[in-house]
Amino acid sequence: MTIDSTAxxxxxxxxxxxxxxxxxxxxxxxxxxxxxxxxxxxxxxxICTPEWNGRFDAGRPFAEGIAELAADHPDxxxxxxxxxxxxxxxxxxxxxxxxxxxxxxxxAGYRTYALSNWSAExxxxxxxxxxxxxxxxxxxxxxxxxxGKPDPRMFRELLSRFSLKAEETAFIDDWDLNxxxxxxxxxxxxxxxxxxxxxxxLRRLGLPIAAASESESESVAAE
Length: 223
Description:
Blueprint: E1 11-14, E2 21-23, H1 26-33, H2 37-46, H3 50-57, H4 62-72, H5 77-85, E3 91-94, H6 96-107, E4 111-116, H7 120-129, E5 138-141, H8 142-145, H9 152-161, E6 169-173, H10 176-184, E7 188-191, H11 195-204, H12 214-222
Parallel strand pairs: 1-4, 1-6, 4-5, 6-7
Antiparallel strand pairs: 2-3
Helix pairs in contact: 1-2, 4-5
């Protein structure tokens, strides 16, 4: 992506999963499958798939989706039910380096928002677990809107709900389709790789953000 240094940004919107919050169903299912990593990956690719999870993000009730899938795969019902019963175990923690970037922007007078694909049902728990969300100016969750990114309606909801201008809004996400959708609406789209890279990208946009710390740079080099 070419960063447009002439952009006049007043608002920054962050994706959550993979950007500010470490979410991964493998954190739970490694406990359930033990050493059989291949079986776990098959289960997540063929039964509790990303597409199936995406329907919850778009507003489908968990009870409905779990019951339907368990009926289709009765031999896997216990594992399927765990997707809801033990859902908090999929959360790995706060991605502190990105949250620190948000705090620096807030301190500099920028408005900050979350724009994320997330089930409204599970977000009730998530919000309690991640108090940094209350520091932001607002949160838009797909499960409440009824559609998920990259649907343009998600981005339009953010803009309209908070009276934002697309050209003055930067959006940070780790998925290319979401970045492309945001850019198509005139939003300044910034792909997320890691916090150190994000700092450089935001500085090129003219935002008053500190350069990457030594620990962040070392983390990137280690990867």
